[in-house]
Amino acid sequence: NVKQVIGREILDSRGNPTVEAEVLLENGVTGRGMAPSGASTGIFEAVELRDKEAKRYGGKGVKKAVNSVNTKIRETIVGMNVNDIYKIDEAMKKEDGTDDKSKLGANAILAVSIACAKAAAKSYHMPFYQFLGGISANILPIPMMNILNGGAHASNTVDVQEFMIMPVGASDFKEALRASSEVFHSLQLLLKEKGLATSVGDEGGFAPNLTSDEEAIQFILAAVEKAGYEPKKDFLLALDAASSEWKGKEKGQYHLPKSGKDVTSYQLIEHWEMLCDKYPICSIEDPLDEEDWEGWIAITEKLGKKIQLVGDDLFVTNTKRLEKGIREKCGNAILIKPNQIGTVSETIEAVKMAQRAGFRTIISHRSGETEDTTIADLAVAFGTGQIKTGAPSRGERVAKYNRLLRIEEQLKENAVYGVKEI
Ligand code: PGA
Ligand code: ZN
C-alpha cells in the first residue's frame, strides 16, 4: 500500500519546469514518474496545470501541480493498494472532478499514475513492460525517427513538423537503431556540404532552413543512400504535418505560418497524395486539422488503403474522440501520448479500443521530455510495433532507445522486431 507520495518541480528537455512524483510503498519499494510536455498541443488534450506567475519561469512554473501531488492526491491515495492501477487512477480522477483534469493538473495526475504503476511492477519484481503486458509481451517497436524538425519544434523555415525515417528492413531493434543513427549522421554531412545548419530542434533532428517539404524529403532519401541503404526496402518515410498548427480563417482553411501559404483541406489532401505517389512515404500524422472531421473522412477514403493516417491532435489519446473517429472512418492509426489523457489506465484503454477496431497504435514522446523512459516499456507492453521518440540525438530521446536495447537483450530469442506491415 502507498505510504507516501512526494511531488517536485524538475526541468524538462527545453529547460521548462515539469512535475516529478515519487511514491513510497509500505514494503519499502519506490516508484517514480515524470510528466512530459508538448509544444504543438491539441486543443482537446487534458490540461497541464501551470502557475502563470509571470515572474517565475516565465509563467511556466508547476508549483500548483506539485502542490496537488503533495496535498489532494496524497490524501486520496495514501493507504491504497498500488497493484490495481485502475483504482488509483479512478480515485485521482474523482478527486479532480473535471473532464480535462484541469483542477489537479494532468501533469500532476500522470506523474503519480506512472509512479504508482512502476512501484507496483517493482513489488512483483517484474520489468514494467511485463507487469503491464504480461509475460508474452515481446514485440520491439520500429522507431519513427524524427531526423528533420520543423513547425513548432524549430525556428527554421519548414512548416511540416516532423520528417521521420523508419528502419523497416532491419532484422532486430539493435540493427534498426544502428542503421538509423548512420542515416542521421549522413544527413548531417549532406547538410554541412550544402552550408546548411546542423544544429538540432526540440526532438533531436536537424533544423535547416529549406524551401519546401519536398526538399527535406530529398535530403533524407539522399542520406539513406549515402549511408549505404535502399529507400523503400530498408527505410520508409513518415511525416507529422501537425497541421492543427495551421489554422486558417475558417474551418477547412489552412494557413501555413512559415511559408505564408493559404490552402484548403482539399488542396492539402491533393498535396499529400502527390507526395505519397512520388516518395516512399508510409505514414502521415495529422495531415488535417483536429476539427476537420470531413477532411479526415475524405483523406481516409483516398489514402487509407495505401498509407497509415495517424490521428494525434485529432484523437488526443481520448477514447471518446477515438470512438467517433472509428465510427466515421477518420484515419486508421492513433498516436498514444499518456499525458494527453493523464493516466496510465486511460492510456491502456485507448490502445485497447484502437487495437480492437484494427487501428494501428504508435506510442509517443512529447517535444518537451525528461529522462523518464516509461514509453519504451509501454510500446513493448502493448505490442504497438511502432514508437515515436525523436532522433538518435539528445539524451532524453536516446534514453528511450537505450531502454529498448536493454529490453531486447532481456527478451533474448523471444524478441520480435516490428509489425509485419506498416
Ligand atoms: P508536441 O509534438 O509534443 O510538441 O505536441 C509532438 C507531436 O505532434 O507528435
Ligand atoms: Zn503529432
From TrEMBL:
Task: State its role.
Answer: Catalyzes the reversible conversion of 2-phosphoglycerate (2-PG) into phosphoenolpyruvate (PEP). It is essential for the degradation of carbohydrates via glycolysis.
Q: Name one GO cellular component term.
A: extracellular region
Q: Where is the active site?
A: E203 (proton donor), K337 (proton acceptor)
Keywords in alphabetical order = Cytoplasm, Glycolysis, Lyase, Magnesium, Metal-binding, Pyruvate, Secreted
Top-level taxonomic group: Bacteria
Pathway field: Carbohydrate degradation; glycolysis; pyruvate from D-glyceraldehyde 3-phosphate: step 4/5
So what does this thing catalyse? (2R)-2-phosphoglycerate = phosphoenolpyruvate + H2O
Q: Which family does it belong to?
A: Belongs to the enolase family.
Q: Which InterPro entries does this UniProt record tie to the protein?
A: Enolase, Enolase-like_C_sf, Enolase-like_N, Enolase_C, Enolase_CS, Enolase_N
Its protein name is Enolase
Which ranges carry the Enolase C-terminal TIM barrel domain?
A: 137-421
**Gene Ontology BP annotations:** glycolytic process
Q: Which residues bind (2R)-2-phosphoglycerate?
A: Q161, K337, R366, S367, K388
Q: Write the Enzyme Commission number(s) for this entry.
A: 4.2.1.11
The UniProt annotation places Mg(2+) binding at D240, E285, D312
Question: Residue ranges of the Enolase N-terminal domain?
Answer: 2-132
Task: Return one GO MF term.
Answer: phosphopyruvate hydratase activity
Tell me where in or outside the cell this protein is found.
Answer: Cytoplasm; Secreted; Cell surface
Q: Which cofactor does it need?
A: Mg(2+)
